């Protein structure tokens, strides 16, 4: 199982202003441990601020690339971590929306956790889907035409594993498992 994702390239996208630390770093660590190659793309490239519990500044990390320089064709999956600042910034960024839409149209795995599904709304890919998220997004997702469910992980899409969503940091193990299963199948 350690190399179950060998040969799989996964893009994780964030803003530079802030992302929930564990929702960024734990998927990076777990999916790498399964053999995947991960690229962390941020809006501006360079330094990204992480937060704990959405309010406490934590360490900074370096992203690998700018979103505008990245293309869906180079990856097998897209991961969108949460944190209100991250999700709210990504949903207004043209390149983030472009990437989300490209991955969705290509039928590739798109995984979003916590507030990350906000970006799915603005990319125009939430309508008609069954999703989960941090509970405060329930009305936003419903208004965008999605069905909201309260589950640790929800899989939805034209191909069973196309869209994976989770609610909160406590769900990260299930979130990571679902991504690994989707790509390892």
Automatic annotation (TrEMBL):
Highest taxon of source: Bacteria
Stretches assigned to the DJ-1/PfpI domain: 9-180
Molecular function per GO: transferase activity
Alphabetical UniProt keywords: Glutamine amidotransferase, Transferase
Database matches in PROSITE patterns: PEPTIDASE_C56_PFPI (PS51276)
Keyword Transferase: yes
Family statement: Belongs to the peptidase C56 family.
Record protein name field: Glutamine amidotransferase
Organism the protein comes from: Pseudomonas putida
Classification lineage: Bacteria, Pseudomonadati, Pseudomonadota, Gammaproteobacteria, Pseudomonadales
């Amino acid at each position: 199982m350690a190399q179950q994702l060998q040969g799989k390239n996964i893009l994780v996208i964030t803003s530079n202003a802030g992302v929930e630390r564990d929702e960024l770093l734990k998927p990076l660590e777990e999916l790498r441990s399964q053999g995947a190659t991960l690229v962390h793309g941020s809006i501006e490239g360079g330094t990204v601020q992480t937060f704990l519990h959405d309010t406490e500044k934590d360490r900074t990390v370096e992203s690998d690339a700018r979103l505008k320089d990245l293309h869906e064709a180079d990856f097998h999956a897209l991961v969108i971590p949460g944190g209100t600042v991250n999700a709210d910034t990504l949903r207004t960024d043209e390149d983030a929306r472009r990437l989300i839409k490209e991955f969705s149209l290509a039928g590739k795995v798109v995984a979003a956790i916590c507030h990350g599904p906000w970006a799915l709304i603005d990319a125009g890919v939430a309508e008609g889907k069954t999703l989960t998220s941090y509970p405060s997004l329930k009305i936003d997702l419903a208004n965008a035409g999605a069905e909201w469910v309260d589950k640790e992980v929800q899989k939805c899409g034209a191909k069973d594993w196309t869209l994976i969503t989770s609610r909160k940091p406590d769900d990260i193990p299930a979130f990571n498992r679902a991504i690994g299963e989707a790509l390892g199948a």
